[in-house]
Design a protein that fits this description.
single chain; Protein Transport Mog1p, Chain A; 14 strands; flat; 15% strand; 7-stranded antiparallel sheet
Length: 534
C-alpha cells in the first residue's frame, strides 16, 4: 500500500519534489521531439494542427493525473524490465536525435523518436507508479504521437489517390448540375477556367485534424475504446466527404464567377468544412454518451500528494532520463558545430537576369506556390528559340537554415507532374554538368502530357562541398547517413526546372539544355537573377 508522507509546516514536501522531477523527465523526453516537429508544423499546412498537440496532450495527462489510482511503484521483474528498456533506448535515441539534426523531415526517424519517447514515458511511469499508472496515464503519451507526420510513402500515395478520386467525383457530379467539367489528373476544367484539387483540398489535410479531434473528444467524453475507434473512422469519412462537397461548391463558384470567386471563397469554405467536421464529431460524442455503458469509469481514487510512495528508484530514473536527454541533444549540437566550423561552401549560383532587350521577362510563381515552398527567391521564365521550340524555366532558392532541405526536397517531378495529370515516361540517372565554374547535378525526365511529350531537366544542389568536389548524391538513407557523419545540415538549396517542348529526340534535347546552361547558370556574385519573391 502507499504511505502518506507527513511534512512540517514550511518544509519541502519530498513527494511534491519527486512529482516535479517526474513531470520534468516527461517534458525532457517529449520536448526535443516537439521542437524538431515545429518545422514540419510550420512548413506543412496539413500538419499545422500539431501546434495544439503538446497542450492537449498536457491537458489529458493532467486530467488523468488528478484522478489517478494509488501508486504501486514497480518492483522485481517489472522494475528490472523498465530499467532495461530505458537503457536499451539510449543508443537508438541518440542516433535518432543526431540524424534529425540534419534531416528534421525524415519521417522514419521522427517516428522512431516518437516511439522511443512513448516507450520511455511508459517505462518511467511503470517505475514511478506501477501497472495502475501505466494503464491510466498511457493514453496521454499515445495522443502525443498524433503530432508526428505520417510516413512519406503512404502519405504521398494517399494524397495522390484521394486527390485523383476527388477530381473524378467532381467531374462526374458537376455535369449533373448543368456545369461542363473535364478531369485532368487533379485539375478540373470548368468552362474556361481550371480548378486544382490542391485549391479545393483533397481531404488529406482534414484527415490529420479529424483524428486529433476524434481522439480528444473521445477522451473528453470518457468514451470506451470501441466508441473512440468508431469516432475516428467516421471522422475520416466525414472529413473527406465534406472536402469533396467543398470542391463542388468552389467549382460552381469558378464556373459562375471565374477564378476571382475561388480566391474569395477558398479560405471561408475551408473554415466551414472544418467546423462541419468538428460538429459531426461532437454530435456523435453527444449521441454516444446517451448509450448505457458507453463511458469509462474514472479512477477517482483518493489521491496522495506527489507520486505516492517515495522510493529512490523513481526519482533516480527520472533524473537519469533528464541527464541522458541533455547529453544526447548537447552531443548532437556539438557534433554539427565541430564538423561545420571550418566547412567549405560550394560557389553559390543563380540564374542570370533576363535581358530586357531580348523581350524576356521573369515572372513570380504566385502566392500559393510560395506558401507551399517558402523559398527565399523564386521566379519563372518562358520563351521560344529560333527553331520554334518552347522553353520554360522555374528557379527557386533557399538560404541556409533549418528547414531549407525540407522545403526544397519533397516537390519532385514524380509527384508534381502526376498531380496535374501528366505521366513520367522515363527518368535518367543522376548526372553532373559544368557551367561557368559551377557544378550542378540533374536528372532528365521525359514527360507525357496528353498526346504531347516534353523533356524536363530537374536540378537541385546544396551548398556544401567536400574538398574541391561538389557533393552530389541521391537522397537515399545511405547517403543521408553519410551527410550526417560529415556534419552536413542547414545547407542552402537551389532548384531549377528547365522544360523543352517540341524536341522529340532525348539526346538532342539534353544537348540543347547543356548548351543553354552557361547562359543561365552563373555564380551568384556575378548576377542577381530574376526579381522573384523575397
Amino acid at each position: 500500500m502507499s504511505q502518506t508522507i507527513e511534512t512540517r509546516p514550511g518544509a519541502v514536501d519530498p513527494a511534491g519534489v519527486s512529482a516535479l522531477v517526474f513531470f520534468v523527465a516527461l517534458a525532457a523526453v517529449w520536448g526535443w521531439l516537439f521542437f524538431i516537429l515545429t518545422g514540419e508544423w510550420e512548413a506543412n499546412e496539413q500538419y499545422s494542427h500539431g501546434w495544439f498537440i503538446p497542450f492537449l496532450a498536457g491537458w489529458i495527462f493532467w486530467q488523468r493525473w488528478t484522478t489517478r489510482p494509488a501508486a504501486e511503484p514497480a518492483r522485481g521483474l517489472l522494475l528490472g524490465a523498465s530499467w532495461l528498456v530505458l537503457l536499451a533506448l539510449v543508443a537508438p535515441a541518440a542516433l535518432g536525435i543526431l540524424i534529425a539534426g540534419a534531416y528534421p523531415d525524415w519521417r522514419v526517424v521522427l517516428w522512431g523518436l516518437g516511439i522511443a519517447a512513448f516507450v520511455a514515458s511508459v517505462a518511467l511511469t511503470a517505475i514511478a507508479g506501477g501497472l495502475p499508472w501505466v494503464r491510466y496515464l498511457t493514453f496521454a503519451y499515445f495522443f502525443a504521437l498524433v503530432a508526428i507526420p505520417w510516413p512519406s510513402q503512404p502519405e504521398r500515395w494517399l494524397t495522390q489517390e484521394l486527390s485523383l478520386l476527388a477530381a473524378q467525383i467532381a467531374a462526374w457530379v458537376l455535369p449533373l448540375l448543368g456545369i461542363a467539367a473535364m478531369c485532368h489528373g487533379t485539375t478540373i476544367d470548368v468552362g474556361s477556367d481550371v480548378l486544382g484539387v490542391d485549391d479545393a483540398c483533397s481531404g488529406i489535410r482534414s484527415f490529420q485534424s479529424s483524428i486529433m479531434a476524434a481522439l480528444f473528444l473521445g477522451e473528453l467524453y470518457a468514451l470506451r475504446w470501441g466508441y473512440r475507434i468508431a469516432l475516428v473512422v467516421i471522422g475520416l469519412f466525414a472529413a473527406y466527404a465534406f472536402n469533396v462537397i467543398r470542391m463542388l461548391i468552389l467549382s460552381i463558384a469558378v464556373a459562375n464567377g471565374g477564378v476571382d470567386a475561388l480566391d474569395k471563397l477558398h479560405d471561408p469554405a475551408g473554415f466551414a468544412i472544418l467546423i462541419a467536421t468538428m460538429g459531426v464529431l461532437w454530435l456523435l460524442c453527444w449521441g454516444f454518451q446517451k448509450i448505457p455503458g458507453s463511458q469509462q469509469a474514472l479512477a477517482k481514487a483518493k489521491i496522495q500528494s506527489g507520486i505516492g510512495q517515495i522510493a529512490k528508484s523513481p526519482v533516480f530514473a527520472c533524473v537519469a532520463a533528464i541527464v541522458a536527454m541533455a547529453l544526447m541533444v548537447g552531443g548532437s549540437e556539438g557534433w554539427y558545430w565541430w564538423k561545420n566550423k571550418n566547412a567549405e561552401r560550394a560557389p553559390a549560383w543563380t540564374i542570370a537576369a533576363a535581358d530586357p532587350q531580348s523581350g524576356l521577362a521573369d515572372e513570380e510563381l504566385g502566392e500559393k506556390v510560395y506558401e507551399m515552398l517558402r523559398y527565399d527567391r523564386g521566379f519563372q521564365r518562358s520563351w521560344r528559340d529560333e527553331g520554334g521550340r518552347q522553353w520554360h524555366m522555374i528557379f527557386t532558392e533557399w538560404e541556409p537554415k533549418r528547414m531549407s532541405l525540407h522545403y526544397a526536397q519533397p516537390h519532385l517531378p514524380e509527384q508534381c507532374q502526376r498531380m496535374i495529370g501528366r505521366e513520367i515516361v522515363s527518368k535518367s540517372e543522376l548526372r553532373k554538368a559544368e557551367a561557368n565554374d559551377v557544378t550542378i547535378a540533374y536528372n532528365l525526365y521525359k514527360i507525357r502530357a496528353g498526346a504531347d511529350e516534353f523533356y524536363l531537366m530537374y536540378v537541385i544542389n546544396d551548398d556544401r562541398i567536400s574538398g574541391q568536389e561538389v557533393t552530389v548524391e541521391r537522397a537515399t538513407p545511405a547517403n543521408r547517413m553519410k551527410a550526417v557523419m560529415a556534419g552536413r545540415r542547414n545547407m542552402g538549396q537551389r532548384s531549377m526546372q528547365l522544360a523543352l517542348v517540341g524536341e522529340p529526340d532525348a539526346e538532342v534535347a539534353e544537348q540543347a539544355m547543356l548548351q543553354l546552361l552557361p547562359q543561365l547558370v552563373v555564380p551568384a556574385s556575378e548576377a542577381s537573377g530574376g526579381e522573384g519573391k523575397k
